[in-house]
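Review box. Two proteins, two foldings.
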Amino acid sequence: MEVVFGGDFYPGRRWEEKIINNAASIWSDEVVSFFHEADLRIVNLETPLTVSNIPIKKIGPNLKCHPNVVKTLNHANIDLVTIANNHIYDFGDKGLKDTIKILEDNKINYIGVGKDKNTAENAIFEKEDVVFLNYSHNEWGAATDKTSGFNSYSIIGITNKIKHYKKLKKCVCLILHRGHEHFSFPSPNMVEEFRFFVDNGADLIITHHSHFYSGFEKYKNGHIFYGLGNMLFDSSTKDERWFESFLLKINFENKKITDLKILPINHKFENGKISIGNDEKFFKNQNLLNQIIKNNKELEKKWLDYASLMELSYLLMLQNKSKYILSLVKRAPFLKKYFLRESNNKHTLQNYFNCEAHYEAIKEILNK
């Protein structure tokens, strides 16, 4: 069985009108052929399909697309979408229900969501003894015992599911919406967690969320892909990495992975299509990413550099400063001392975040 995986798929903003006018117009022939050759095609649908105008309260944009964009998924023969992600609940239960209905009406399978936590945990897909499980990090819309939403990331929960399906002699594929935005690497903690999942029986781990593609590794009996990047996601950014991605084709035989193929793609709106990317540039960069991921010291350095880059943003948010101040200080770093006071409660915050007892209590309070 051949399975093709694509990354974050948001057919909104400028792409939306183009798709509604002609659902086939965004696909190059080569990309469509790559999908059509497979037995199963999976992408991460990172938006509700709804006309609702009642967004949830959150930090960051509330994404949605008109239900008619579903036709572009039909054109590429996408027959399974993962929707455990941080945008599927942007328009609440109504947006989620609308999305499920339009997917079902178009005979597109979905995983990773449900009317409550138990339903979301058991929203899985199985084909030829391969089980696909979908989880998202805990951000805006995780299902609870009383509310609908997505299947939330839990190391214990994921491990128990892996063990359950391995007892049934299944091949287990985890599809995780997890990572750090605008960062081409997994954090050292992610590497440790994902390898732990392989230690407990996961055969394949596919990741998306960071908007940049990452590297991959063969670890023991498992394959780990640390980021597929954006398959389609319009943006005004000048960073080329936002538009560079890849499709992954995996061949399963007798519950084992026997072959894989990577197809670099690019989706700049100015080019009008999801088209074939620059092979030489892509594979040279991905090989570099792979080497760094395998080197603990190099990966730790990349992670610390990223954390340092994000420090200003987090400090400004914790002090309730405007995002415009963040933009100003980034352009003129010497202004930092005028806008950021020395934190007198740094040790308090450190204790609240690091100590499991405080973390659990604060999390419960904030979720009320």
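Next protein.
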Amino acid sequence: MRQSGLFNDGSEPERAKRLDEDPSFPNRVYRLVLLIPRGKVTTYGTIAAVLGDRRGARMVGWAMSNCPPEVSEVAHRVVNRYGELSGGWAWGHPEVMKQLLVEEGVTFVDEYQVDLDKHLWIPPMEEEVEPPEVR
């Protein structure tokens, strides 16, 4: 069926829930990512652990690959467990992700590896998280 014909019966499309109203795993990830301060990074695995699944780093990565625009603005602050810019290709090249971090004051120990000793941010446990204001 063509997309333009989906609502010919007069029905309305389902409206997306706001991030603070949707308890799905991806939106739980997005709420935490929106809390990462400028100049800090966190890891996929750290987010997964805070959400209760210490082995769920890949699921966090999957959620980040489809994030809404307000989360995309800060998605460069999520790196792999070694501090490497594993999401860099989402910006076309890891150098783009690196420049976004450098502009925030993040330093690197290698070309595309963040200094986690200086910049790692550990999110609060999920039950302590206030929903972010969504623009």
